[in-house]
Design a protein that fits this description.
The chain has three domains: 112 residues, Sandwich (Immunoglobulin-like), CATH 2.60.40.10; 71 residues, no CATH class; 127 residues. The chain starts with a helix and ends with a strand. The protein contains two helices and 29 strands. It is mainly beta. Strands 12, 13, 18, 19, 20, 25, 26 and 27 form an eight-stranded antiparallel sheet that branches. Strands 2, 4, 5, 7, 8 and 9 form a six-stranded mixed sheet that branches.
Length: 378
């Protein structure tokens, strides 16, 4: 009898619990009230974009009347768009919960490009707010326009850049294109030789890459090729896609400058693949009144696109250096732009190399961490 009573109580409590749970269940309300008021920027506001230096711009609106938590996105579209397929969307501040979004001018430049506004041109885009909850989303009942004036340059910057074409060291097979060294976002550099033919810049070596070309040795445009004529020469090709700018500098010579004798001992021939090297040369450390002095750096003679010749000096990051040895770190030999002082920022030759035969190499390959130089025995 006692067991029966216990079982009855257990069943009763289970029924009560089940009933209680059922009473607490309620359907999820997915209704969303769209935003109805846009506060900033004001309608038809104008911005002259400076993607690299301009301050971010705040977009603000009044909160949705929806009681539960919602997410907000700023949606951009063409002036005649209906936001069914926005050009670009930006989640609001606070991971989507705040009623404002802080948007960089770099993003707005991308939006302008997607809207078909060319560089150095002005055009109109419009923006609205998408409010969403549990997969249900509604566009604000109103939208504003903004006028965007784009600078020179490309809004979408490639992660990598390559050189290809009949004028290049690796020919027109794009899969063998030469990589540039990435200096910063949109800024690339490559030391290479060019011969008679044509070349282009591409953002990939597979698929259908985006291509660019250098015009008048100063600017970069989308598509096209650049024509090279005359003898083969070595160049430093510098490209800034954020400003659509290019600088073509001929590297006439790379000289091994001996500091104690204050003269270039020899010039290094260009051997391809962004390297200069002289092989089978006697490594000589000059004897001075105070002893052996092996300080050296490099004298680059260059010519700009206007035909003006100048000198660039490359040496150590340190003003003074100890003698190297077989255990000296690779960073000792990294190349930096330095001044023309006779004795400062020089490397030194390993004393054990004196009077031995070896090779001197200057390596500006884009695929190494830092430009460098080396002296190796044969």
């Amino acid at each position: 009898m006692k067991n029966f009573i216990k079982i009855s109580f257990v069943v009763l409590f289970a029924m009560i619990a089940t009933t209680s749970c059922k009473k607490q269940e309620r359907a999820l309300n997915t209704d969303v009230a769209p935003v109805s008021t846009l506060n900033a920027p004001e309608n038809a506001a104008s911005f002259t974009l400076a993607p690299s230096t301009g301050p971010s711009i705040q977009f603000k609106w009044s909160a949705s009347a929806t009681q539960d938590l919602v997410l907000y996105e700023v949606a951009f579209d063409k002036a005649d768009g209906d936001f069914s397929k926005p050009l670009y969307k930006v989640l609001s501040d606070g991971k989507g919960v705040q009623t404002q979004a802080t948007i960089t001018q770099k993003i707005l430049n991308t939006v302008a490009s997607l809207a078909g506004i060319e560089s150095l041109s002005t055009g109109t885009v419009k923006w609205a707010i998408i409010t969403s909850k549990a997969g249900n989303a509604k566009v604000s009942t109103t939208s504003n326009t903004i006028q965007l004036a784009r600078p020179a340059g490309f809004a979408v910057l490639p992660a990598a850049l390559y050189l290809t074409g009949t004028a290049t060291e690796h020919g027109a097979d794009v899969s063998k294109a030469l990589p540039f060294k990435k200096i910063s976002d949109g800024v690339f550099e490559l030391y290479t030789s060019l011969k008679a033919g044509t070349y282009a810049l591409v953002d990939n070596t597979t698929g259908t890459p985006v291509s660019y070309s250098i015009q008048n040795n100063t600017s970069v445009i989308a598509g096209g090729t650049t024509t090279v004529s005359g003898d083969t020469k070595v160049y430093r090709i510098s490209v800034d896609l954020s400003n659509a700018a290019a600088t073509i500098t001929q590297v006439v010579s790379v000289g091994f400058f001996n500091a104690p004798d204050n003269k270039v001992y020899f010039e290094l021939p260009y051997i391809g693949n962004s390297q200069w090297e002289i092989a089978n040369t006697t490594i000589s450390i000059p004897l001075q009144s105070y002893g052996l002095d092996s300080r050296y750096k490099y004298k680059f003679t260059v010519v700009d696109s206007g035909g003006n010749q100048s000198v660039e000096w490359y040496g150590s990051i340190a003003r003074d250096n100890p003698d190297p040895s077989n255990t000296t770190p690779a960073s000792y030999y990294y190349m930096y732009l330095v001044d023309n002082s006779q004795f400062d920022y020089c490397y030194k030759v390993n004393p054990a190399f004196n009077t031995k035969v070896g090779s001197v190499n200057v390596n500006y390959s884009p695929d190494i961490p830092n430009y460098t130089n080396s002296i190796k025995l044969k």
